Amino acid sequence: MSNKQKYDAGDRYSRQDLSIHNAIVFAARKHAPQYRKGTDIPYIAHLMEVMQILIENNCEKNVIIAGILHDTIEDTGATPDEIRTLFGENVLSIVQAETEDKTKTWQERKQATIDHLLSASKKAKLVCCADKLSNMRSIYADLEDIGEKVWERFNADKKSIQWYYENILKAIHEISDSDMYKDLSEIIEDVFNLSWDCNTNGRN
Predict the structure, then answer these.
(1) Beta strands per DSSP E along the chain
(2) Which partner for 133 in 9, 78, 184, 190 could form a disulfide, CB atoms 3.0-4.6 Å apart?
(3) Alpha-carbon Rg of the chain, whole angstroms?
(4) Where are the alpha helices (DSSP H) in 14-79?
(5) Which residues, other chains included, contact 29 with Cβ-Cβ below 8 Å and sequence gap of 6+?
(6) Structural domain tally of the chain?
(7) Taking each helix axis from N to C terminus, what angle separates 44-56 and 122-146, rounded to the nearest 10 degrees?
(8) Apex CA 162: angle with CA 113 and CA 97, to 5°?
(9) Are 124 and 117 in contact (CB under 8 A)?
(10) d(CA 75, CA 85)
């Protein structure tokens, strides 16, 4: 696909439609104090990568907006009413599908996410896939930098995290024909099945 075709696919809305712009501004303000886990990278970088992945995969506008906003209810003071008022019920439903209950344990939250995704909308699965692909790219980059120490940043061990991502793939198999699903599948394989040592230039 040419760059022109990609641009057209991601530009299906009117040039006077500022909804994606407004979503970026909203998310940037809500996530302003936050950083990626264990790093000095502003959290908005993750959301912009999710947006990029969704655009590259020719997703519709509401899916792109939901991708930008997917952590606002879970991780900031944003409310469902705010999302509904500013971006509509369709976007809200996708964001809520991506929102975990942080009063539960890590295992309970992740199992609930997997179970929900099995019957979730295709749009929610697209956002989930872009989110997880961005996360895996970050882990991959950190593995290249600091090796297996990266797993110390998480609330679960490496084996549990592998279980989670492999089951996410199964739960969103409906979109297995998409480029981002294939990318996610491949990077999960690399992250969890290669040996990493930052003292020997990364992969072994």
Answers:
(1) 196-197, 202-203
(2) 184
(3) 17
(4) 19-30, 44-56, 61-69, 72-75
(5) none
(6) 1
(7) 120
(8) 15
(9) yes
(10) 19
Active site residues: 74-75
| Structure token pair of residue 170 | 């199964």
CATH code of the domain covering residue 153: 1.10.3210.10
Using the structure block, give the residue that is written with the tokens 């040039």: 15
Separation of alpha carbons 190 and 155, rounded Å: 21
By residue range, what is the domain housing residue 106?
Answer: 3-203
Residue 92: the pLDDT is: 98
| Digit-coded pLDDT (tens) for 44-97 | 999 999 999 999 999 999 999 999 999 999 999 899 999 999 999 999 999 999
Q: Grade residue 9 by pLDDT with cuts at 50, 70 and 90.
A: very low
Instruction: List phi, psi (to 5°) of 108.
Output: -65, -45
Closest CA to 31 of 95, 76, 86: 76
Extract the tokens encoding 85: 């008022």
User: Does residue 41 come out as left (phi exceeding 0), alpha (psi in the -120 to 50 range) or beta?
Assistant: beta
Least confident of 145-154, 164-173, 174-183, 190-199: 190-199
- 121 to each of 63, 89, 94, 95, how far by Cα in Å? 11, 14, 8, 11
